[in-house]
Amino acid sequence: IGFGNTGNGNIGIGLTGDGQTGFGALNSGSGNIGLFNSGTDNIGIANSGDGNWGIANSGNHNTGLANAGNTNTGAFNTGLANTGIANTGNYNTGSYNTGNTNTGSFNPGNTNTGLFNLGSYNTGLANTGNINTGAFNTGNMDNGWWWRGDSQGLIGAYYAITVPEIPAFFNVAIPVDIPITISITDIEINPVTIPKISFSGLDDGIGGKVIGSIGPASVYGAQTGDPIVISFGEQPAVAINVGNPDGSTVINISGTGGLGPISIPIVDVPAAPGFGTATTSPSSGFFNAGAGSASGFANFGANNSGLWNVSNAVAGNSGYLNYGSLQSGLANFGNTISGLYNTGTVGLTSPANVSGIASIGTDLAGVLRDGPTATAFNAGLANIGAGNVGFANIGDVNLGSANIGDYNLGSGNIGDLNVGSGNLGGTNLGSGNIGNGNIGFANTGPSLTAAVRNVGFGNTGSHNVGAGNTGDGNIGFGNTGNGNIGIGLTGDGQTGFGALNSGSGNTGLFNSGTDNIGIANSGDGNWGIANSGNHNTGLANAGNTNTGAFNAGLANTGIANTGSYNTGSYNTGNTNTGSFNPGNTNTGLFNPGDANTGLANTGNSNTGVANSGNVDTGAFISGNYSNGFLWRGDYQGLITISYSSTIPEIPWHYDVNAPIEIPISGNVNEITLELFHISSIPIKVQLQQTICFLGYCTTITTTLYDGSVGGWALGPYTLLAPTTVAETIAQTFDLPGSGTLGPYTFGFTYQQSPGFFNSTTDPSSGFFNSGGGGASGLFNSAPGAVSGLANAVANSSGLGNAGGTGNSGYLNYGGLESGFANLGNTISGSFNTSTVDLTQAAFDSGIGNVGTNLSGVFNDVFVP
């Protein structure tokens, strides 16, 4: 009985143990802040769990009142990661939900968007079935009210153009009448004579040898010397006709076929639960897409309810604009998170266990926490750091806007512990100082180096007291040198009054530089008061070529810019049009990022307000390449228009038939070998013997035969008797076939790029931009990063700048310009015109000047 007791049977407050009565410590446990907490690391009153922020939470990491569950934001939740009141389920956004992942209240079912749904995946009111869109449906997958059955009230649409079967046929008649004649002339073989053949050397067996001759012999035709003739008779020798000569032989080739029918669907929207849903499983609601089932409006992924949530796994979200899984509430990023605009730091698949508002980290509860011991509290927009009051500060505990550093009071400071604006350094009291410990305005060291501990304004050097001194340790006005006390002294250690001006070519009082017009200028070529830089027009500019006051940078038009080429005030970045921009090339206010058009963007190339991502068009977007508001992921809010239609398989068939019957008739003549002769063949045989007597030898030749054989008359002979040809070629061809073509899918997809109607090469935000990409704003056509309206050159901001890169302001032509309607390079102010090439620095400031190295108004000649 009591508060913050740990143990059993205690009566009192803060007691530890059993059966205790009375008052113990204000907190038991460890790491608690508040009263009567008995857990660990609680902030609040009477929390008995761990890591809670609020009152009487008994669970862990809750933000609110009397949550018994874990990671809840709200009151009386007993479940996990709910945002709302008295949810006994998990991951709900709303109140009194006993189911899980509902957006709404009093839902016993799961993943509903609405009220009093007993079923699951419903969008609407009091549906007891599942996946219904409407109210009081007891069936499933219905659209409408009071349906009792399933799949009632569904609207589908189908319209198709059907082309009937396209028939095809043909019939080809080919007459066949092919006469073939072959003429062959008679073959004549010339007569042949075989000459006489002699022989000798045959052994007679009695000691001699046999010699002799055979021939000659001749083969010839009918008469001696005639050729031998092979006759083919009358010509043509061969006469054949393919087909009937009267033309009655015909080859008929016929075929039939068909293509189709062809159905071309134009509209095919099947009846399904919900309206415009494109999820892989049935969903209720409107325009949900992605994997799985869902309810609500325009969610992507599985098991979401609510509006514009994106789930990255099977587990979904409830609420609005959450990105991740197992989340409830508004615009959270991570896993197992409740509340508003919290960010987990362990990825999308590991539980972050964060509840509350705008906290960053893991195992956190409360408001604006950045880890266990730090805070992310800032009063203002687009601050990076903690404890800032203002806009677009980068650092901690700044009071003002666009400071880069810590503990600054003012705006546009780069450094720490400055009181004032536009200081580049630390512990300065005043504005436009470069260096540390200066009190006053526009104090700087030589050549824009750091000055130390000046008191006054427009001093160049350190430890000066006064105005317009050049050197160190001077007291007074317009002194040049060191350790002088007085006015207009030149040298070191002087006391008294010197000339009204030191230096040369000065007009006015207490100028210590050269060619100045005004009072207490310590630089060269200035027009105004207390300028310590060169070619400035205005008051206490420590930089060069500025038009305005307290500018420490180069070629600014405005007040207290520590950056360069800015049009506006308190810009610590470069080439901005607007004020309080720590980043570069911004058009607007309080932008720590680069190339933004709008207000308080910490990312780059955004068009809108307080976007921490890149290339976003809208407001409060922490993702990238998105259009809209509060998006946490990338490529969200982009319009996709897709249309496709599938022509089903198209049947086809054919059948080709050709019966062929072709007669072949004709004659082949007789072939004869006519009469030919073989002449008689003479034959002579002799015997030679050698006889020796008493040393005398002689040869005796004896003729044994001397006669002839033959001749012969041969032929005529028939080589081929006359032949009649009478044949018929018969063959039937039948070739059938069938099949299908397709299916064929046609259509188009339009995927919107970041922004609206941009045509840049790389992504841009804004409207109607063209060129290279990385742009923000409207109607820009630059080849690179640019912000503003209708700029034609890269790295520029403002309106209608062209000619070269690095411009801010309005209607400037050239490069590195600020202000309005200037022509040239390195110019600030308005209506100034350089007389050198656009690539050369003119160093002009002021109004209406023509030439180079000019300040002031309406100078039209160079002042040497």
- As laid out across the biggest beta sheet, the strand order is 50-51-52-53-54-55-56-57-58-59-60-61-62
Largest sheet: 13 strands, parallel
Average of the residue pLDDT scores: 90
Class per helix and strand makeup: mainly beta
Low-confidence stretches: none
DSSP summary, beta strand count:
75
| Radius of gyration computed on alpha carbons | 56 Å
Beta-strand content estimate: 35-45%
Helix content: under 10%
**Number of helical stretches of at least 4 residues:** 0
Shape: elongated
Can you give a write-up of this model?
This protein has a 13-stranded parallel sheet with strand order 50-51-52-53-54-55-56-57-58-59-60-61-62, with no helix packed on it. A twelve-stranded parallel sheet has the order 6-7-8-9-10-11-12-13-14-15-16-17, with no helix packed on it. By secondary structure, it is mainly beta. β67 (681-693) and β68 form a beta hairpin. 0% of the residues lie in helices and 37% in strands. It is elongated and about 175 Å long.
Concise summary:
Helix content is 0%, strand content 37%. It contains no helices and 75 strands. The protein is elongated.
List the helices and strands and how they pair.
Elements: E1 2-3, E2 6-8, E3 11-13, E4 16-18, E5 21-23, E6 33-35, E7 43-45, E8 53-55, E9 63-65, E10 73-75, E11 83-85, E12 93-95, E13 103-105, E14 113-115, E15 123-125, E16 133-135, E17 143-145, E18 157-163, E19 166-175, E20 178-182, E21 187-189, E22 192-194, E23 197-203, E24 209-214, E25 217-220, E26 228-231, E27 238-242, E28 250-259, E29 262-269, E30 278-279, E31 289-290, E32 310-311, E33 323-327, E34 333-337, E35 343-344, E36 360-361, E37 378-379, E38 388-389, E39 429-431, E40 435-436, E41 439-441, E42 451-452, E43 455-457, E44 465-467, E45 475-477, E46 480-482, E47 485-487, E48 490-492, E49 495-497, E50 507-509, E51 517-519, E52 527-529, E53 537-539, E54 547-549, E55 557-559, E56 567-569, E57 577-579, E58 587-589, E59 597-599, E60 607-609, E61 617-619, E62 627-629, E63 640-647, E64 650-668, E65 671-673, E66 676-678, E67 681-693, E68 696-709, E69 712-714, E70 717-720, E71 723-741, E72 744-751, E73 802-803, E74 813-817, E75 823-827
Parallel strand pairs: 1-3, 2-4, 3-5, 6-7, 7-8, 8-9, 9-10, 10-11, 11-12, 12-13, 13-14, 14-15, 15-16, 16-17, 30-31, 32-33, 33-34, 35-36, 37-38, 39-41, 40-42, 41-43, 43-44, 44-45, 45-47, 46-48, 47-49, 50-51, 51-52, 52-53, 53-54, 54-55, 55-56, 56-57, 57-58, 58-59, 59-60, 60-61, 61-62, 73-74, ...
Antiparallel strand pairs: 18-29, 19-28, 20-27, 21-26, 22-25, 23-24, 24-67, 25-66, 26-65, 27-64, 28-64, 63-72, 64-71, 65-70, 66-69, 67-68
